[in-house]
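Check the record.
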Amino acid sequence: MRPVRQRAPRGVVVAAVVTTLWLSSLVLPAAARAGPLPPVPLPRKDKEKIPAVRWDEERPGCTFSRSDDGHFHYGLWYEDVGIIMSVDAQELEKVHHRPEPFFSVMLEVHYRGQGSLDLATENISLEFVKHFKVVQAALDPDDFVDKVQNDADERDHETAHEVEKHPEKKEEKDAYVRALLKDSAELQEFVGKNSLRPTLLGPGNPEKSGWVLFSTESKWISGWKKQEEFILRVPLGGKVFEFPFKLPPKPGEVTLRKRE
């Protein structure tokens, strides 16, 4: 006599099939994706606790203007703190023409309180909104200067080896090295003298200004869009000052007003 197989109740079979299909719907699309996935920011428990003060053209204390040298200026005053962020209208074009590719903004920080305000620079960041929202921290000026020097030395050595193999190109290569070393030296001097440095603001030292640089060397940043969007974030005094901006801004997106 053949054993009698126990058949599972119909409801149990249906539930098992539905569960299998649901699990497959979660796994298959992820496996079917082509190419690398964008970086996923790690959760930060304290991120939501830090109040943000965001630049908005319609908000009191916010201004926008354009100077004759082609720079856009975004001003934001909140309580005792004022920050002016300036960026070259042609910054996108200039990035890849530098000895080292970087994106730069000028910051002016003003403090009119009677206490003290610690201006740190290492936590300033720039978000590349149209490039998977990649966030780049501000470059350390001294480390960046060292990198520029080391890269220039390496290229100098490489060129010397090329000249040994091809003496007929000596004049051409020497001219290239001279131009490279000159540009590198000028960049190092500029960064060393004009970068924004950490400082303690107070009644005796109410303002500080300087350039902040951000690396554009990332596999998620490849080629500029027709219009780029950025968010500059400056942590200061227990708050995060945010400057959303676009390059180049389209006509009508911002109203030209005098800075207050």
Q: What stands out?
A: The longest helix spans residues 141-165. The CA atoms of residues 152 and 182 lie 10 Å apart.
